[in-house]
Write a structure and sequence with these properties.
The complex is a heterodimer of chains A (442) and B (491).
Chain A: H1 2-13, E1 18-19, H2 22-26, E2 37-39, H3 44-57, E3 61-64, E4 81-84, E5 91-95, E6 100-104, H4 109-117, E7 121-122, H5 135-141, H6 148-151, H7 154-157, E8 158-164, E9 170-174, E10 199-206, E11 208-209, E12 215-221, H8 224-236, E13 243-247, H9 249-259, E14 269-275, H10 279-293, E15 298-302, H11 304-316, E16 326-332, H12 338-346, E17 356-360, E18 365-371, H13 375-388, E19 392-397, H14 416-426
Parallel strand pairs in A: 2-4, 3-4
Antiparallel strand pairs in A: 1-2, 5-6, 6-10, 7-11, 8-9, 8-10, 12-14, 12-15, 13-14, 13-17, 16-18, 16-19, 17-18
Chain B: H1 3-6, H2 13-24, E1 29-30, H3 33-36, E2 53-55, H4 60-72, E3 77-80, E4 97-100, E5 107-111, E6 116-119, H5 125-132, E7 137-138, H6 151-157, H7 164-167, E8 174-180, E9 186-190, H8 201-205, E10 214-221, E11 223-224, E12 228-236, H9 239-251, E13 258-263, H10 264-274, E14 284-292, H11 294-310, E15 315-318, H12 322-333, E16 345-348, H13 358-371, E17 377-381, E18 389-393, H14 400-417, H15 436-439, H16 442-455, H17 473-478
Helix pairs in contact in B: 2-4, 9-11, 13-14
The chains are: A alpha+beta (442), B alpha+beta (491).
């Protein structure tokens, strides 16, 4: 079956853009599952024809960008065809005065930012994997970073999309203007879809003026409770930080080391405030943080290279590279409940190693990382804490052999039956990313 | 095809009425023409249609009861909030049961530290902010109709507002929903935190214009009030100068929270009502608002002032008191209430263009109006590129309605031609559904229909909306002379 698929795929993309070499295919393996063949389409239409060919043969399709987020999701049940979008690269429409940019899905975020930066603009997104990740991959994986507190998430920035559907059409949703209520907002079908709804071909974002240099205000406090008290006080203040993080001692050591800064106290929790924008505003943030930190803890202000490196490390904390062979969780819930989620992650009992915790304390998203051996107990304890808080917990990365033994997705969400029906409408043959989505959705 | 051919026929009206009365009691089921006529309009006043029945459920359970009764009788359901919508989304030219959510107006839960509130769909937009502003919080989407429009209607239309520029539209502020599906099942969507796993059903339902189900609870995001705010008026000689100032203010990076344009004809209409002291001879007035920590406000305001001066502003005024600030905003938000002074009727557009196209498209809009012998009034969200050209006219004058429709259609086409869209915040409804093929291919629309079919396979929810139909807006409009313009329109 797959031999025939490779022939058909070769007809569609040309021999130069088909990968059948076993070593090359091994580098495209997802959770150890090696694809039978990989194709680099040169257009949305080619991507659509590849999926049609796969559909006719009942072959499983894994869309892929730079492969940075392939650790998300379940172990693929099958991997007959990888559709790699990296040939679909480059900006297609950019008028700086519009504050809108359209680029093909395989464009690395880094390249996009470099071009926007030439006009003192940027896509205000600082996601994990942001160095190599493609914009299509970032959308499909719904990747966001610490700065979402002030600038929003990728969901708030994506205003239009072109997608090759598993049923063979190339469609667009949304448009190229910053406000648009014409028709359904189908862009939402593809954000966080892990490729299940089709291959993203092109995306249009609203972008912002680049805010210039920022400053880090790092406060170290003795306990999680003290960190929570401080983040709550900041959230109740008039401050408008671009990011607000709470890091446990392990995570704090991890990110300060990356910044070349010595953690003031190896056992302290850290509260990290990112101030960006007008100088007057940054000064105010530093001054008020001194007052808020007061007797609670020690304060340090970082600028320049250390500041930049620190926030890169914060953004990359959820990346598998930061926790080799470990298990990484994401949990979300009511914003002010982050400390309950953190305590759930850290109080699993008799851990084999440390459980590092970094919370986006202003948005209620928390990342926890532990050794593989602690995966199941942390999963249970964090999952229970998340449910009790009205939130959720998922496993973002784990050694493939462990994945089947972990509750990767947690309890089913509301609307699961609707999700099933949507999956059926958009992927009637069920060829897309089998095994990857939760609750049997793919 | 005639509209009459498409009208839904109710087989057994008596049995349906009885079934609905069993759910709601007889006082919340309206069948008498005298009661029904109150529901023949929404904010799109040029369109009228009388529903077969009107019901007023008071809870999710009662909505389920209504849906089940309708389903058994295979009668369409048309959800309605406050009826301020501007695209005819809350009226039904093909009959059916109009479901008013006006009685579901309780704020169920407020949680300031978690920055959210759970509200029923009939809650008035401004009432959410009123409930939390004493504690220093607010609900960001603020359509000009915010003192009358409902949260449920905002969800249906993905409504914007005058502070959209900085804070986004409804979809950026809805965290979760309770939805009654046309099969009578109740789904709780979202609401478990940011980046929730699974498909983003909440995001798909927001902006679906009541065509996927009936929303009975909404979890909204609350925002912390900014410490300082400065409201300014830039008084310009021409729209072109004001447009360039808009572009330069955005480029300065200070992220203003509002950038609204008011043209000369609007000032003529609004000044005798509001008395804000606006000059009657200014070509365009920009209403600019900056917010943030107090320490940075002077600097932000200074940058705005500087940019305006560079663009030949005649004068920059700064609101010195809260009263003055409200007066500035009254000139903007009350603009369309004052339109009755210009003509008995009006027709309103909601196109959006890429921001750099604004000056050119404004010239085209004026030229189109001139060519058709019409005037055009412009009050709009300049920062977003969201135009609101409004054509005052007299429906009683022979041929004038046709000219207005023709001109409006040309304006929309001009906006689409430069990469714009049909509607920025008012919705498609039955007013612009037949223009959808201008911006979407058959495949694009088919993909949207798949979404519809997943939620509503039998097309019982607000049918005849959003997607193209065999009957044009012009035919719908031609059915009856519109009522006179009154102080009931906001954009």
């Amino acid at each position: 079956m797959t031999g025939d698929l490779a022939d058909r795929a070769r007809e569609i993309v040309g021999a130069a853009h088909l990968i059948t070499d076993q070593a090359a295919l091994a580098s495209l393996a997802v959770d150890g599952v090696r694809p039978a063949v990989a194709a680099h389409p040169g257009s949305g239409e080619e991507a659509a024809r590849l999926m049609t060919a796969a559909g006719e043969r009942g072959a499983a399709v894994l869309p892929r960008g730079a492969g940075v987020h392939q650790h998300l999701g379940g172990v693929p049940a099958r991997a007959d065809l990888v559709i790699d979008t990296r040939r679909l690269s480059g900006i297609t429409d950019y008028v700086p005065a519009d504050y809108v940019v359209a680029a093909r899905a395989g464009t690395p975020l880094r390249d996009l930012q470099a071009e926007l930066g030439r006009h003192t603009q940027w896509l205000p997104l600082d996601p994990p994997g942001g160095g190599a990740a493609t914009i299509g991959g970032l959308i499909a994986a719904n990747r966001n970073g610490p700065r979402r507190l002030l600038y929003g998430s990728i969901r708030d920035m994506l205003i239009g999309i072109r997608v090759a559907l598993p049923t063979g059409e190339v469609i667009k949703a949304g448009g190229k203007v910053v406000k648009n209520v014409a028709g359904y907002d189908l862009t939402k079908m593809f954000i966080g879809s892990l490729g299940s709804a089709g291959v993203i071909v092109e995306a249009t974002f609203k972008i912002s003026p680049f805010p210039g240099d920022g400053q880090t205000i790092l406060v170290t406090v003795p306990t999680r409770a003290a960190a929570h008290e401080l983040t709550t006080a900041i959230m109740r203040s008039y401050l408008l930080p671009a990011a607000l993080e709470a890091a446990d001692p392990h995570a704090l050591r991890h990110v300060t080391k990356a910044a070349g800064v010595t953690a003031p106290d190896p056992n302290a929790w850290g509260v990290l405030v990112l101030a960006e924008g007008l100088a007057e505003s940054r000064v105010r943030h530093v001054d008020e943080m001194r007052a808020l930190a007061g007797s609670r803890g020690r304060i340090e202000v970082l600028e320049g290279a250390a500041h930049t490196a620190l926030w890169r490390a914060v953004a990359e904390f959820p990346s598998p590279d930061a926790h080799p062979a470990g298990v990484i969780f994401r949990a979300g819930g009511p914003i002010a409940r982050w400390a309950d989620l953190a305590s759930g992650a850290q109080e699993a009992g008799a851990p084999a190693g440390p459980v590092g915790v970094l919370a986006h304390a202003g948005t209620g998203v928390l990342y926890a990382a532990c050794a593989a051996a602690d995966g199941p107990s942390v999963a249970a304890s964090l999952g229970a804490a998340a449910s009790a808080a009205g939130g959720y917990a998922v496993v973002e990365a784990a050694p493939p052999a462990l994945k089947p033994h972990l509750p990767l997705w947690g309890p089913p969400p509301g609307g699961l039956e609707l999700m099933r029906r949507l999956r059926e409408k958009f992927d009637p043959r069920g060829i897309m990313v089998p095994g990857r989505l939760g609750w049997g959705l793919s | 095809m005639q509209l009459a051919d498409l009208r839904h026929r109710i087989e057994d009206r008596t049995a349906l009425t009885r079934a609905l009365q069993e759910v709601l009691g007889s006082d919340r089921v309206f069948t008498h023409p005298a009661d029904l006529i109150a529901y023949e309009y929404d904010g799109a006043q040029v369109l009228t249609a009388i529903p077969d029945l009107v019901v007023l459920p008071g809870s999710t359970e009662e909505v389920v009861g209504v849906v089940n009764a309708a389903r058994r009788h295979r009668v369409p359901l048309i959800p309605r909030g406050a009826g301020t919508g501007l695209s005819g989304g809350a009226i039904t030219p093909i009959g059916g049961i109009l479901v008013s959510l006006a009685r579901m107006k309780r704020i169920l839960h407020v949680d300031l530290d978690n920055r959210c509130a759970v509200v029923q769909p009939g809650v008035i937009n401004l009432d959410v902010t009123k409930a939390v502003e004493g504690s220093g919080y607010f609900y960001a989407p603020d359509p000009s109709s915010q003192s009358a429009c409902s949260i449920g209607g905002n969800v249906a239309n993905n409504s914007g507002g005058v502070h959209t520029l900085a804070f986004g539209v409804t979809t950026n502020h809805v965290l979760g929903l309770t939805l009654v599906l046309p099969d009578g099942s109740v789904e709780r969507l979202g609401g478990r935190g940011a980046d929730e796993p699974g498909l983003d059903l909440t995001g798909l339902v927001v902006g679906s214009e009541g065509t996927l189900g009936i929303v009975t609870e909404v979890t909204v995001r609350l925002m912390r009030r900014r410490e300082g705010v400065r409201t300014m008026l830039g008084i310009f000689g021409t729209i072109a100068e004001a447009s360039q100032a808009v572009a330069d203010i955005i480029a300065s990076g200070i992220a203003p929270t509002a950038l609204e344009m008011i043209d000369q004809l609007t000032v003529e209409a609004v000044e005798p009502v509001v008395h804000a002291g606006l000059p009657l001879d200014a070509g365009a007035i920009l209403l600019i608002e900056v917010e943030g920590v107090c320490d940075a406000i002077d600097r932000s305001a200074g940058i705005v002032d500087e940019v305006c001066r560079k663009n030949q502003v005649r004068e920059v005024r700064i609101a010195r008191t809260e009263e003055e600030r409200h007066l500035y905003w009254a000139s903007r938000k009350g603009a369309f209430g004052a339109m009755g002074r210009l003509a008995p009727n009006y027709y309103l557009n909601d196109a959006v263009v890429p921001r750099s196209q604004l000056p050119a498209i404004m010239r085209q809009v004026m030229e189109i109006a001139r060519r058709h012998g019409l005037r055009v009034v412009n009050v709009f969200h300049a920062g977003d590129g969201n135009l609101h050209p409004l054509i005052p006219y007299d429906a009683a004058a022979p041929g004038e309605s046709d000219r207005v429709l023709k001109a409006s259609e040309e304006m929309l086409a001009a906006c689409v031609a430069v990469g714009g869209t049909l509607s920025g915040e008012h919705g498609i409804g039955i007013e612009k559904n037949n223009y959808m093929p201008w911006i979407f291919s058959a495949s694009d629309l088919d993909a949207q229909r798949r979404l519809k079919a997943a939620f509503d396979p039998e097309d019982l929810m607000n049918p005849f909306k959003v997607f193209p139909t065999p009957v044009s807006c012009g035919e719908l409009m031609a059915r009856r002379a519109p009522r006179l313009a009154a102080s009931g329109l906001w954009i």
